[in-house]
Amino acid sequence: MDTKRTVFPSQGLPYLLVAPQIIITLIFFIWPAGQAVKSSFEREDPFGLATSFVGLSHYVRLFQDPAYLASIGRTAVFALAVTVISMGLALILAVAVNRLIRSATTYSTLLLWPYAVSPVVAGILWWFLFNSSTGILPYMLSFFGVDWNHQLNGTHAMILIIVAASWKQISYNFLFFLAGMQSVPQSLNEAAAIDGAGPFKRFWTIVFPLLSPTTFFLLIVNLNYTMFDTFGVIDATTTGGPNQATNILVYKVYTDGYIGLNLGSSSAQSVILMLFVIALTVIQFRYVERRVQY
User: Cellular location of this protein (predicted)?
Assistant: First the structure.
């Protein structure tokens, strides 16, 4: 079997083609990350007029601060809940749409629309729905004896941001799950059906194992989403309250750095957050990927 190779007329042409992406990565990713690491070892006044080297003092103070340790716990709960809910519901919706024949395209288009909504708009939408004075959902919950008020109850506020962030991510997960299911050979399902396997057994023994690469990819993407891309949802709904109940790591970086003007501590928090995400990704590739069937 002959394989075709692309031959560039000039040795410098491949580097020229990837140069724009490399430049963008250096300017908008590598350089800011390096500045954050540098700033985490310094104490700087809010106007940048005076800077002094303080070593690891910002990191030591953070891990001695009960508020920061509590924020780590809240972030873990938030990340786990959003990942499980968004991926679980997306998988259920993908299974349902994949069984349709005529209207699958229409349902797919409708289910993809929420992904086009910005995080801020998604947060405001659910803030109105859960508004304790005018929202329809607190009114419905009152029939079950639930006195909803996310402005005073920290648990209610956490539920609100979990629901809003999950709803925003379901469409993304649904798209990949549906594409993965449609790539499963129909002959495998037909053979299992002939052998007497029901729909539920065919899904868990044939379809779901073949979806493991997609599931593994979405697991990494969703954890990164909860760590970084949920700032807009929180800022539009609870602003970290009440009483810091929804002040997860990514929002605490903002409140301490931009509002509190503690640039050194904020930089240290961003570095720690980055290390957490890198560690989670390494762990997933090291241990979870072993169960993936390519």
Answer: Cell inner membrane; Cell membrane
